[in-house]
């Protein structure tokens, strides 16, 4: 049966990539359908109920700066907020929130259901409609045909999913959910490179059976951080503590004793797992000299007793899981409510995608999230937004858009993926960004909201708030430049009292702010600030960072200019690498495997040397 309504964009999958993709396309005015297995699992967190953290919160703030939902949902659901690296520089500062799993899902569902231009439909997608080399629709499990100009696929860990607990395994998309088998088979018919990856989750624990008195409490920060530019502290639900405990020698002995029944160590699991989020058996094996590992005991929500023991993800047999959990301080009598498990799933080589996340082989088909080899809600959400945006732009007959590496972590993420591919689940780190002084949490709005507005992603309310902040930063910066500290004046004496700094030569306030010890709030305390009270904190932070880091940022700007030059030099998809004289066979093979779109991208492929880039440049110039 053909459904009566034809869509601009269909998004398959209602996880973190799918929800941001659907919302982005709908916000732009595209008629959008979100097709997902189960409406009850929209926005479900498959693993730990936490959003943000180092590198990841930068992505959340970028999604937010482009009008996405993740940060706002976190503000509505967060039960413990912290700023990590708060004593380090602003480039690596990161906000992390423990979320109430049920409240997070409810927030995402509320945002989705209230989004105009967006229909939601519950059913599995089993097949595509392809005409020539273009996708034109989707066929569901019961044979309903939906037509669309573009399709975004965000199926997470579900494609060909297999769940492992010890030596037992069964098919599944994640615990309690069916896998996507028909769609996985269909995708394997397409000329796309496919592989298997693996991820895992720890057993969950009943809080009634845990002795918190022997654990270390970890409260959230005061003042309470917020995640979204539009967020308010009052949105947060009740705040609670997390807890810290540790594994010990006995735990490690139990794990070693179970390795002969571990699906990972007996070769049953073939997929590669996340290096930076390893299972406890992996940690014991890889860091054999460590006799203890830290475990964060995190509440799953305000209305449940379930706890998430962060740090003991495992696929060991259930009896080993029980013993290892009970060997840990405070959990001697613990009751496991859900066993830990590992899941293996299909992912597709992201080198077969363009920067817009459209597949190179089927026009109008976009991939986002775990299917591209990434791990994490934030990485998925960011890609989802980009894919939804580009699917929408294509449906509207407009050119695609993607951020560059100096513009956003999202730019780094996509460029890394499509240039180098990935052999293990890819997660974001601040160290992946070469221009990280420019890509801070605090300036995500400045970097992206104006372009988001042009692309149709930003509503009037957010735009007005953004403009108010920008204007306040500009006017207050002007004021600080026009007010002076003269040696010996009353204001200067007050300044010295507040800061401990001497003024021997007259200088304006902005110059004084360059001194490491001087803060914006101290200058504001001298009087005459023109910033409204509710903007003092954000505007002050922005001005302070702008002033103190100006020198470093200027230095990076030269590198960025060079990058942009190379970014302008496009390499045609049918570029003949065999015709480039002097390239080694190895470099030639790497370039052919990645088919970079620009000279800059070619230079970022591992093993492609600056000399090889010069040879490409010479050939490009010769070809005119
Ligand atoms: P998902 O959130 O998986 O969403 C996929 C959606 O697609 C679901 O709604 C599903 O129902 C739907 N769907 C699938 N197939 C179809 C179909 N054919 N038709 C219709 N709908 C379909 N991340 C970390 O950062 N750290 C971790 O430690 C970690 N551990 C994990 C452990 C486990 C066991 C699992 C399952 C995931 C783990 N993750 C972890 C990964 C994290 O959950 C994902 O990165 C994130 O959820 C990916 O988002 P996504 O939108 O790509 O996919």
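^ structure tokens above, recovered residues below v
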């Amino acid at each position: 049966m053909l459904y009566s309504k034809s869509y601009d964009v269909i998004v398959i999958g209602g996880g973190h990539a799918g929800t941001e993709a659907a919302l982005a396309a709908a916000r732009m005015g595209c008629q959008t359908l979100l097709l997902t297995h189960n409406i009850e699992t929209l926005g479900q967190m498959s693993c730990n109920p936490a959003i943000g953290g180092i590198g990841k919160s930068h992505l959340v703030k970028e999604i937010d700066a482009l009008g996405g939902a993740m940060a706002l949902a976190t503000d509505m659901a967060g039960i413990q907020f912290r700023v990590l690296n708060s004593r380090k520089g602003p480039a690596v500062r990161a906000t992390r929130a423990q979320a109430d799993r049920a409240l997070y899902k409810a927030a995402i569902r509320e945002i989705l259901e209230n989004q105009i231009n967006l229909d939601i439909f519950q059913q599995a997608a089993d097949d595509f409609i392809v005409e020539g080399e273009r996708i034109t629709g989707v066929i569901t499990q019961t044979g309903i045909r939906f037509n669309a100009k573009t399709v975004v696929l965000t199926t997470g860990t579900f494609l060909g999913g297999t769940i492992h607990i010890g030596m037992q395994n069964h098919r599944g998309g994640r615990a309690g959910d069916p896998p996507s088998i028909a769609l996985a088979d269909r995708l394997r018919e397409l000329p796309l490179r496919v592989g298997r990856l693996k991820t895992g989750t720890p057993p969950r624990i009943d809080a009634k059976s845990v002795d918190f008195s022997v654990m270390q409490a970890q409260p959230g920060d005061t003042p309470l951080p917020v995640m979204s530019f539009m967020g308010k502290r009052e949105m947060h639900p009740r705040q609670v503590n997390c807890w810290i405990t540790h594994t010990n020698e006995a735990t490690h002995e139990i794990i070693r004793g179970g390795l002969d029944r571990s699906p990972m160590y007996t070769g049953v699991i073939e997929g590669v797992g996340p290096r930076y989020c390893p299972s406890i058996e992996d940690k014991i094996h890889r860091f054999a000299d460590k006799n203890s590992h830290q475990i964060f005991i995190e509440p799953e929500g305000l209305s449940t007793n379930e706890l998430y023991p962060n740090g003991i993800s495992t696929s060991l047999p259930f009896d080993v899981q029980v013993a290892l959990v009970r060997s840990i301080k405070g959990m001697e009598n613990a009751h496991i409510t859900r066993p830990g498990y590992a899941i293996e799933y299909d992912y597709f080589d992201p080198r077969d995608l363009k920067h817009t996340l459209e597949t190179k082989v089927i026009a109008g088909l976009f991939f986002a999230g775990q299917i591209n080899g990434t791990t994490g809600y934030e990485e998925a959400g960011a890609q989802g937004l980009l894919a939804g945006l580009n699917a929408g732009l294509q449906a509207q007959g407009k050119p695609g858009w993607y951020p560059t590496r100096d513009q956003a972590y999202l730019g780094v993420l996509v460029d890394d993926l499509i240039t180098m591919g990935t052999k293990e689940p890819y997660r974001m780190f601040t160290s992946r960004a070469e221009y990280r002084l420019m890509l801070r949490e605090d300036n995500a709005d400045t970097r992206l909201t104006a372009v988001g507005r042009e692309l149709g992603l930003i509503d009037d309310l957010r735009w007005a708030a953004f403009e108010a902040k920008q204007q306040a930063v500009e006017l207050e910066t002007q004021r600080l430049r026009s007010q002076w500290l003269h040696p010996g004046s009353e204001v200067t004496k007050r300044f010295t009292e507040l800061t401990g700094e001497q003024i021997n030569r007259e200088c304006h306030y902005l110059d004084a702010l360059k001194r490491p010890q001087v803060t914006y709030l101290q200058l504001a305390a001298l009087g005459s600030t023109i910033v409204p009270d509710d903007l003092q904190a954000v505007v002050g932070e922005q001005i302070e960072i702008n002033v103190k880091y100006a020198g470093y940022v200027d230095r990076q700007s030269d590198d960025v200019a060079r990058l942009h030059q190379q970014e302008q030099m496009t390499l045609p998809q049918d570029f003949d690498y065999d015709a480039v004289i002097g390239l080694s066979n190895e470099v030639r093979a790497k370039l052919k495997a990645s088919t970079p779109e620009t000279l800059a991208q070619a230079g970022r492929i591992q093993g492609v040397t600056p000399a090889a880039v010069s040879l490409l440049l010479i050939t490009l110039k010769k070809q005119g």
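The longest helix spans residues 460-482.
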